[in-house]
Each structure stands twice: as C-alpha cells, then as structure tokens.
Amino acid sequence: MLDDFDLVLTQARAGSAEAFERIYRDLARPVAAYVRGGGVRDVDDVVSEVFLAVFTGLDRFTGDQGQFRSWVFTIAHRRLVDGWRRTSRTAVHVPYEQDDDHRTTPAAEDGALTALGQDRVLALLETLTEEQRDVLVLRVVADLTVDQVAAVLGKRPGAVKALQRRGLATLREALSKEG
Q1: Dihedral (C-alpha) 129, 175, 114, 27: value to the nearest 10 degrees?
Q2: Distance of CA 132 to CAs 87, 94, 113, Å?
Q3: What is the structure's pLDDT at 116?
Q4: What is the pLDDT along the chain (179 residues), one digit of tens a residue?
Q5: Are the C-beta atoms of residues 79 and 35 closer than 8 Å to each other?
Q6: How many helices (H) and strands (E) are present in the chain, helices listed first?
Q7: Measured between alpha carbons, how far is 120 from 108 in angstroms, rounded to an integer?
C-alpha cells in the first residue's frame, strides 16, 4: 500500500510517470493474480487493459486508498467478465507462477500452495461455484474487505459473507474427506 496515497494520486492526475509506476507496482501483481484465478489465458493483456482504464479514469475517481483499491478491482472484474463474454466458454485456469510473484511479505496463498500444492489448490477451487471462487480470491489474493468485494461484484456485503462462508465450508469438507 502506498504511504503517501493522496500525493501519488495528485501527481498521477498531473501526468507523472513516476506516480503511474508506483500505482502500477502496488497493484499489478494482485490484479494479475485475480485475473489469473478467473481463468484468463493472457493475463498480461488483461492487466494492461485494467491499468489503461485506471490511468485514463483517474480524473473521475474520488475517495481514499481503500476505495481506490476497490475501484481498480472493480475494473479488473469487469474486464474479466468481458473476457468471459467474448470467449463464450467456461474459464480455463492458468497456473499460478510463483516465480512471477515478487512480494516481500509471505502471502496466504503461498502457505496454501506449499501445504497442498498448486495443482491441488486449483482442483479445490474448481469445486466452488464461480461466485464463491470470486469472493475467496478477492478476499485472499486481492486482500479486499467484505465491503470492497461487495462493490467489485455488485453484491450486498451479507451476500459476500454468505458466499465466503459456503465456499470455505466446501473447501473444509473436501479437505477433511482427504484426511
């Protein structure tokens, strides 16, 4: 997260390449992980589309850093849905590439991948409904709050909580069956 968000946003609106780069560096990896989890084949292309929309829409954005993050993931979700509509087929999962993930703090998905293995995590995600998968990926990978996920998906916070609870219960049940 950016320590001086308001300054960076002001500079980006004024056309500062450095400010654009800071915003991109802060959010590109989580956005890529989100669209990858949604089954996008050309992750880089969608991430580029998302940030093009972000940078061209900066003047229309109002809010704080949390609202900005939510706004970016709303754009990412819309690009994801647009891609699904264009291809008119079910999402195909693109493997998570840990070598592409250069975060400095351990992430929750790293622990899950280490404990279960990447293929197993993807297989477990396949047991969820599309809505449950979206909620869990946005909560864990994108690190959004329930309210932010609700805004991204166009749902009420109570519905997001219910989807999260059901998704986690499904995963817990699948894992307990395996011992």
Answers
A1: 20
A2: 21, 18, 19
A3: 54
A4: 567 889 999 999 999 999 999 999 999 999 998 888 887 778 899 999 999 999 999 999 999 999 999 999 999 999 988 877 776 555 555 666 666 666 556 555 556 555 556 677 777 778 888 899 889 888 887 888 999 999 989 999 999 999 999 999 998 888 888 76
A5: yes
A6: 9, 0
A7: 15
DSSP run (H or E) holding 99? none
DSSP-assigned states of every residue in 110-136: HHHHHHH-HHHHHHHHHTS-HHHHHHH
Backbone angles phi, psi at 135, to 5 degrees: -60, -50
Give the dihedral of Cα atoms 72, 26, 141, 96; nearest 10 deg: 110
For residue 6, give the nearest of 25, 24, 19, 21 by alpha carbon. Answer: 19
What's the DSSP call for residue 96? P
Q: Of all residues in the chain, what percent are helix, strand and coil, respectively (each to 5)?
A: 75, 0, 25
3-state secondary structure of 69: helix
Neighbours of 74 (CB within 10 A): 16
d(CA 87, CA 52): 21
CA angle 128, 133, 138 (to 5 degrees): 160
